[in-house]
Write a structure and sequence with these properties.
mainly alpha, 69% helix, elongated
């Protein structure tokens, strides 16, 4: 909502003169206090700088010195190099999954009837296929066996084998 505009008004010169005369009559006289009064006041005023300038300069110099010293120490530290060498797969030997699979195969030789069931045969076939895939992976990756992607594949194969060995053990 818009306010209505007030009418413009320009007072006449006589009114302005009356206002000026009243202001001059009320004007206070100039007063300059003595120097002693200012000195007393300054004694009671709080200091602007709590630290003397020499302390501030010393603190700044100390910070510069500390920064330079820490930079120098960081550059003087000995560098450690880390390197990895490929692990020979043949040296690793058989994994615990291989050992478990061999034990279950020996049990199958004793439990011939149980191991002839279709589900057990499927599991044994799948285990053989996964073991071959793991061996192929080891042969093909060679020195790249530490690569995260290769390790993920290897872990997935081992997880699948472990699950199948668990199922096979429950069936036998």
């Amino acid at each position: 909502m818009k306010m209505p505009a007030l009418p413009e008004y320009e007072p006449d010169e006589e009114l302005w003169r009356k206002i000026e005369n009243q202001l001059q009559w009320q004007q206070l006289p100039d007063y300059e206090p003595a120097e002693e009064a200012w000195e007393k006041i300054e004694l009671h005023l709080p200091r602007k700088n709590k630290f003397p300038r020499s302390w501030a300069r010393g603190l700044a110099a100390g910070l510069v010195l500390l920064t330079g010293l820490s930079f120098w120490l960081v550059t003087q530290q000995k560098k450690v190099r880390v390197s990895s060498e490929p692990m020979e797969w043949a040296v690793m030997g058989e994994s615990s999954l291989d050992e478990q699979q061999k034990r279950l195969e020996l049990m199958c030789e004793k439990e011939i009837v149980t191991c002839q069931q279709p589900e057990v045969r499927e599991i044994r076939t799948e285990l053989a296929r996964l073991r071959e895939a793991s061996e192929r992976l080891h042969q093909q990756t060679g020195m790249y066996h530490n690569d995260p992607q290769v390790m993920t594949w290897e872990s997935q194969l081992d997880d699948q084998r472990a699950e199948l060995l668990k199922r096979l053990a429950q069936l036998i």
